[in-house]
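lol ok so funny story. i was supposed to be doing the assay writeup but got distracted and ended up predicting the structure for this chain instead. priorities right. anyway since i did it might as well share w the group, maybe its usefull for someone
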Amino acid sequence: MKKILTSVTALLLFCAFQTQAQEKIIRSKYGLTIYPTIKRPNPVTIYPNPAKSSIRIRSAKPIIGFDLEVFDQTGLSYLKQPQWNGEAVDVSKLHNGIYIVRFTRGREHYSQKLIVKQER
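and the output, tada:
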């Protein structure tokens, strides 16, 4: 009986360890390996938000030199600034709506929601 309990306990510990490992790395039978992403707080803040004419960007991490792109929820790009230099971004030509502002450099990227509310 003691041997059975020891075997069952070892099996349960092995299953728990394997389940924990499977949550971290997913391997498919087709050779694809998926590593989970680590959720980090977004260092980018856009203000004023909602915006009328221009926005300023503040960041806890240096993002000068990143490519800036503004696109809508369908993925249509409205504004691109390669090698953004930290200046205010003119959004006066954008229509009222919700946009995504994305900063990209290589594999590193940050995004933030922007609401444009023009008084027309």
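Residues 2-24 form the longest helix (23 residues). The mean pLDDT is 81.
back to the writeup now i swear
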